[in-house]
TrEMBL record:
It comes from the Archaea. The chain crosses the membrane at residues 47-68, 75-97, 109-127. Keywords: Membrane, Transmembrane, Transmembrane helix. The keyword Transmembrane applies. This is Uncharacterized protein. The keyword Membrane applies.
Amino acid sequence: MQRGTPIAVSITRWVGLLGASLWAGVHLVLAAHVVFPGNLTATEIYSIFFGFTSALAIITAVIFLLGLKNLYLPSLIFYIIDFALLTETRTAPALFIGKVLPVNIYVELSWALDIILIIVSAVLWKIDKS
């Protein structure tokens, strides 16, 4: 963190750092364990997707840690897109699978983290002028 940064901004950055790290951890678990019986293509695609988004979440954690203000908006967009995709696959047939996916503890945790990280990204994008 930079010297002279307001305490509210620093705390918000740390909340973002911890939230993004937890989000990445959840999705790394999914990348390692996602299985769609009888559909190897979907299994591979979703596993790669979860791994890729985990890497992006780790990058957003670093963005929050370093206070890279010009990258708060892309972080906000990333979490909005993830929230939309997560919601879409629970309300309409998922791509490559052809059916609505169930809601489970990982989905609920991801929804909560997405909402928190959308708020954190938006707040930092608006208030972090230091």
